[in-house]
Amino acid sequence: MTQRLDHPTTHLAPETARQMVEDAGVGIFQTALDGRFLYGNDVLATQLGFDSAAAMLAAGANSKDFYDDPSDQRIIRATIDEGGSVRGRILKARRLDGSRFWVRETSTAIRDATGQVIGYVGSVADVSDLIETQERLAEAEASYRRIFERATEGIYRSSLDGKQLRSNPALNHLNGYATEEEHLNAVKDIATEWYVDPQRRDEFKRLLERDGVVEDFESEIYRHGTRERIWISENAYLVRDDEGEPLYFEGTVRDITAAKRAEQETQRALERAEAANRAKTDFLAHMSHELRTPLNAILGFSDLLREAADSLPVDKVAAYADDIHRSGSYLLDLINDVLDLSRIESGAFPLEMQRTAAIEAVEEALDAVRPMLEARALAVSVQIAEGVAVQTDRRALKQCLLNLLSNAAKFAPEGSGVWVTAGDAPGDPDRLALTVRDEGPGLPKTVLERLGEPFVIQDDPQYAKQPGSGLGLAITRSLMLRMGGELTVVNAAAGGAAATLLVKRA
User: Fold this and answer.
1) What DSSP element (H or E) covers 180?
2) Going by C-beta distance under 8 Å and a sequence separation of 6 or more, which residues neighbour residue 44?
3) What angle do CA 374, 375, 377 make, to 5 degrees?
4) Which of 76, 126, 291, 432 has the greatest number of beta carbons closer than 10 A?
5) Burial class (CB in 10 A: 0-12, 13-18, 19+), 419
């Protein structure tokens, strides 16, 4: 006899189906057309704040009371009634105690034999944790986006081979671009296009590969869009994948050009201060010699006169007296130069600005220096038209001209010439250029670079051997600045120096 095996049934036993509904992990419901719950599992009841499904049904709970926004139920029902269904709609629900939570609803209609909707069935999953996590992620992303967009420092991501991958507005602006897209499209190779020293990128990569980070990495770069040179400080780190392989670089860029220039200016100021201090030391050493020489002469000759005046011939007494007077006058000139410079720079040198004929100021200065010019057989040529006038302090202008003419008389070769001319100031018709030119050796480069600075003494024997305080140009420059003028000095290619006073025309 052969036994016949029946096919297994495709229908679930009612107890099995009920158990599956209860253990589904989501709320399952059936409602009437008006929304009244006809069935709900314990999961749904717990979601809505009831102790059990039986308590929920006994209370006559209605689904419409649990939508936080009533329009959600109307939209869902309208969609279903039109022949569709709702799958995975995210909405906010309200519990019995009024607290809110997020759910994902899937529902469809129950229809009778004629196709009429007689109720609804569906499921409700509590997705509060998921939605809140998404909201936190969205807020975190928005927060990081705000930081990225609003940061005053440049923020970037770059590939290992030097391609720009991301840049925030601050970095776009630093590089001379309006948008990130424009910036990224323009940069092809950071090493050769950004750093002034192309080897700087190699050093940057070497430190990152060795340490994983770099801090305060200072470099001179070009603003990529304009090629202006600026200084930056970078902080960066190397991003690696899960296997430890390098992916790209990320970091920040800060413009430190102003600080760098201030640092450089501070260094230059320190160097200038040190140079000025050395110059003062040299000046004091020079002045010590210049002061001792006439003082020794005065004391020596006066001692001779005091001890042997009765026995000395009259002509010797007269000669010693001349030497004493000459040394005293020289000493007085030295002291006057130092005091004049001090008074001028402290503002204690009074000025009386008035209309002054240029030729008269020049002639007065020439009269004072003429003995020096004649002693060295220097021919003087004055080319100044009558009627040319300037607005200046007559005494101060004479002092400036006297200083320039004295220098010419000291350094011009014996038997050569000195020229004094007047003309238009280059590019400034409101000022007159009074120039004193000689055929001497000209001024050393160090003096021209520090023109008019006090206490600059030359080691060159041809300058050091000349008597005087060496303050003539400093006094002249200070007086011209006080009068709103200017002193310039140039060396002629064929030899000699031309010193010019730029004075306001009257």
Assistant:
1) helix 180-186
2) 27, 28, 29, 53, 56, 124
3) 55
4) 432
5) middle
- Tokens standing for residue 498: 């031309």
Maximum CA extent, the chain: 179
Tokens of 335: 């002291």
Regarding predicted confidence, which is higher, 453 or 244? 244
pLDDT, tens only, 37-54: 999 999 999 999 999 999
Q: Which residue has the tokens 């060295």?
A: 376
- Closest C-alpha to 505, from 397, 382, 392: 392
Contact residues for 354 (Cβ-Cβ < 8 A; gap 6+)? 391, 392, 393, 394
- H helices of 237-357, in order, are 257-308, 314-346
| Consecutive H or E run containing 136 | helix 128-150
**180, two tokens:** 């990130």
402-423 pLDDT tens trace: 889 988 998 899 999 999 999 9
pLDDT of residue 328: 79
CA distances (Å), origin 319, targets 304, 316, 324: 12, 5, 9
* Residue-wise burial string across 9-22, b where 16 or more C-beta atoms lie within 10 A, e elsewhere: eeeeeeeeeeeebe
Helix 314-346 to helix 257-308 angle (10° resolution) is 160
CA distance 271 to 458: 19
| 230, two tokens | 């600026």
Digit-coded pLDDT (tens) for 354-403 = 999 999 999 999 998 898 899 999 999 999 988 899 999 998 899 899 88
Dihedral sign (CA 434, 438, 440, 441)? positive
The torsion defined by the Cα of 330, 334, 337 and 339, in degrees rounded to 10, comes to -120
